[in-house]
Every structure is written in structure tokens, then in C-alpha cells.
Amino acid sequence: MGRTEKRFSEGLAWLRFVLNSESSMPVVSDWRTLYEFADKQKITGVCDPTKYDVRIGIDVLSLWLRDLEQIKASSSLLNKRVEELNCLLDETGFRHCILKGQGNAEMYPEPLMRMPGDIDVWVDADDESIERFVKNKFPEAAKSYKHIKYPIFDDVPVDVHETPLKFCSPKNNKRLQQWIEDNKKEQFEHRIQFTGVGKEINVPTARFNAVYQLGHMLIHLYDEGIGLRHFVDHYYVLKNLNVSDKERTEIVRDLKSLGLLRFAKAVMWIEKEVLGLRTEGCIVESDEKLGTKLLEDVLEGGNFGKYSERYRGWTGFYWMGMIEAMRILKLMNFAPSEAGFCFLRKMKTAFRYGVQ
Predict the structure, then answer these.
(1) Is residue 41 located within the same domain as residue 124?
(2) Is 280 exposed, middle or buried (0-12, 13-18, 19+ CB in 10 A)?
(3) How far apart are the first and last CA of the chain?
């Protein structure tokens, strides 16, 4: 990785240390740079240095303590809203399941220290029924091809999905939707206790998340970018994965069928070599070449690619769309079929804005 590796080496070493208590504490020469690294990747709660005997300076310490309090408060609020949403949907009769986010947080040693986002809920109903349910109360609710906004709370965004994931590749998406259909019953029946919540909440199983969240990461990689928070989430999914050898073989089969195997090998390299996941926790063998290429993009762009320098000097939807399309070509090896259709979609969007 050259210069990229040197620039982020202390941050990556610290992340590996906090994820693996048996590893040795690394030397950190610049805590402000490490804080900025953690903030860019949205893992400041995970990388909390206040639990260790280190001197980080009062200025950086105050920034970190502020963030830790905000993360804890936001996570507690989201858990409360998840409980309220769960009760509301129970009354409607819709089977439902909370995706990613706060469900992932419960796999962390300190659930309230995962940087929270919005609430994504999968509802077991067709697209028209979900839209009718949401727009009955919120007629102006925004709808995209992935979800519909459900502004039931003033302080927390909620996205309602009729399917947890969609691929751009028609062939892979058809297989994905069948895989989801074949596995959905167990997801709507799997319940866990959320921190600070009195009621158990429906969330997917680790077996489902091991595949589904890789697909979610791939979609975001080609759409905008992914950060280390995604990898830490999946790292804890795999640490909580308790399956037989037969089930592991089935996971590999599913990854192949869905066009996710090469991407999974890249993710495994990062989770094993960078984050410290044990070999027995890996679901496929790792690929160093693919993994280092993926890590470079993750470190350059930060969480959801929001910190990327690739748009510097360019303005307008047309040029930004073209830049995004060219980036997809550079990352095509992870999932060629999906990348090809994502590239065409970006080009179509860019040209549509270009002729206006």
C-alpha cells in the first residue's frame, strides 16, 4: 500500500489492539491524527483510549470524551426508538426485522459505543402495501428503489425496506431475492435483547448477516464507498457466528451463487490481517491482492466515501457522476457483474444531468 500504509499504520494498529485484548498495546506518537482517523471512519467509540493508561493530551482528550458522550446518548435514543417502532409494527400485524445498525451494536463488547446511524427495518410485505401503509400517515414520504422514508420520529430517521438488499445485476438480484425468500422466516423469528430496552427485538441471525452484510457493503462500495465501521460490524458478526462445517460450506456456496466470493476474500483479508480475526473465524480464504486494493479505497474515502479527495476541483452532478463511474471501473475485480451494471447506472445518471 506504500504511502497509504505509512499514513494510517498507527490508526490501524490501535484498532487491531482494541478489538483484540490479548494483543500488545501499540505505540501511538500522534493522538490527534489517530482521533481524526477514527472520526473519519466513524469508529471513535470503538477506539476509545480513555480505558487505557495512555497520555493523549487535554485537547484531544476533550474531543474524545465529547464524542463518547454523544455516541452513548445517540445509541440509547436509537434503542428507545427501535423499541417504539417495534411495538408500532407489532400492532399492524406486519412481520418485521431491524437490519444492521443497532442489531450489530449488540454484538459489540460495549453496544452503546458503536457509532449509530438511522433505523433500517425490513417489513414482510410487498412494495405497494408498504408504500400504502407509510403514505397513509405521511403522504409526502420520499421513496427510492431501496426503501421508503418513514418519518415517524422527529429525532431519528427510519427507512422501511420490503427487501433488505437489492443488486444492480439482474441475474444476481434474482438469485439474491430467492435466497432472501428462502431464509426470511428465521429472520422474522430471531429476537434479542437490546441494551436499555425491556422488550426483545427481531434482528437477523449471524448466519444471515454473514452473507447479507457483505452484499450490503458491496453495494455501498460501488455507490459511494465504505468505511472501517462496516468491517468492524462484519468482524463481530463472524465472531458471533456459531455454525457447523456443513453450514460454512453452505455459506461459501451462497457467496459463489450471489457473485460475492471475490469480494468476500478481500474483506476476509482486511478482517484477518488488519483487524485480527482468527483464521477459524474466516468464512472463506483471504486474498491479499484484493484486500490491499480494497483497504486503500476504504482509507482514502472514509465512512461512505464522504472524505474522499476524488471530487476535488470538480462540481456538478455530471462530472461527479463520471468520476464515480470511473472509480467503479477501478474496483471492478471485486464483483465484475455487479460493477458492470453499477457502472452503467452511474453513466446513465451522469449523461441525464449532462444534457439538462
Answers:
(1) yes
(2) exposed
(3) 40
Q: How far apart are CA 209 and CA 192, in angstroms?
A: 14
Q: pLDDT band at residue 350, thresholds of 50, 70 and 90?
A: confident
Based on its alpha-carbon atoms, the radius of gyration of the chain, rounded to whole angstroms, reads 20
- Total count of domains within the chain: 2
Distance (Å) of CA 258 to CA 102, 169, 285, 338: 26, 10, 17, 10
CA–CA distance, 270 with 320 (Å, rounded to integer): 28
- Are residues 314 and 302 located together in one domain of the fold? no
DSSP secondary-structure letter at 111? G
Assess whether 168 and 214 both reside in one domain. yes
Cβ–Cβ under 8 Å, residues 328 and 345: no
Q: Which residue is it, cell 408498504?
A: 130
Range with the lowest mean pLDDT among 4-8, 177-181, 197-201, 351-355?
4-8
Strand partners, 202: 191
Are residues 297 and 327 part of one domain? no
CB 326 within 8 A of CB 291: no
DSSP helix/strand/coil, 66: helix
Do strands 158-161 and 119-123 pair parallel, antiparallel, or not at all (unpaired)? parallel
Helix axes 170-189, 206-223, angle to 10 degrees: 140
Do 314 and 210 fall into the same domain? no
For residues 291 and 347, membership in a common domain is answered with: no
Phi, psi of 197 (to 5 degrees): -120, 135
Exposure class string for 218-235: b at 16+ Cβ within 10 A, else e:
bbbbbbebbbbbbbbbbb
Whether residue 344 sits in one domain with residue 236: no
Domain extent at residue 282:
3-308
**Residues shown for the chain:** 356
Report pLDDT digits (tens) over 105-115: 999 999 999 99
Its pTM stands at 0.93
Task: Check whether residue 100 and residue 48 sit in a common domain.
Answer: yes
The Cα–Cα gap between 205 and 240 comes to 10
The answer to whether 262 and 268 have CB atoms below 8 angstroms apart is no
Q: What is the mean pLDDT of the chain?
A: 91
